[in-house]
Amino acid sequence: MIKWVVGAKGHLEAAEGGKLVQKEGLKFDIAYTSVLTRAIQTLDHALYETNQMWLPVVKAWQLNERHYGALQGLDKKETVEKHGKDQVTIWRRSYDVPPPDSDTASEHYPGNDPRYALLDKACLPTTESLAITADRVIPYWQQVIVPDIKAGKSVIIAAHGNSLRALVQYLDGISNADITELNIPTATPLLYHLDDDMQPVASPDAIKPLKGRYLGDIDAIRARIEGVKNQTK
Q1: Which of 46, 80, 140, 216 is a Cys-bridge partner for 62, taking CB atoms 3.0 to 4.6 Å apart?
Q2: Domains in the chain, ordered, with CATH?
Q3: Under DSSP, is residue 213 helix (H, G, I), strand (E, B) or coil?
Q4: Nearest 5 degrees, angle CA 5-CA 10-CA 13?
């Protein structure tokens, strides 16, 4: 799994993440990503650096980042100034408290985006909590990705902070309370080995409460985790 990155710095970080995958000698049979540009670009870097650009890629809206409702598209610091740090922290970090709904006339409402033109608007969010995000991520994992793994395929997923948090919570059995404190660092490959029951095999080098192992320098990874944690400060 690799979390999305943006901007010039993000492209460099994504390329470095791809090199870590290459160094690990990982080979894949199929790739999954969201339909959002930043995740697609991150996956492209990973596949380019590992000389696996030829892999079939499945783009799924179910792996999209959480929809922040009326806060979608707003700068985080400006949002804190407007609503207060405590309220924004609740919206961003709580498990089941979503921000206010977006207006369906807004450019940020998925129903106005051509990427979702063929979808029933009833399934498109106007706002999401982590719990709501998990309601689309986990069934997709179970119904689409797991069958590939059971068929013997090695899978790479490029997604987002909250869609990956939802998946990690499910895989590692993290409680709703504890998941609010978990931060996924950008452009840092997270490697899972699953047993025959699709349960993660705990790595001795994992950063608890995860059972999967981040690739790269542990101090740099911890610094990136802290960077995500401090985004609203």
Answers
A1: 140
A2: 2-66+129-229 (3.40.50.1240)
A3: strand
A4: 105
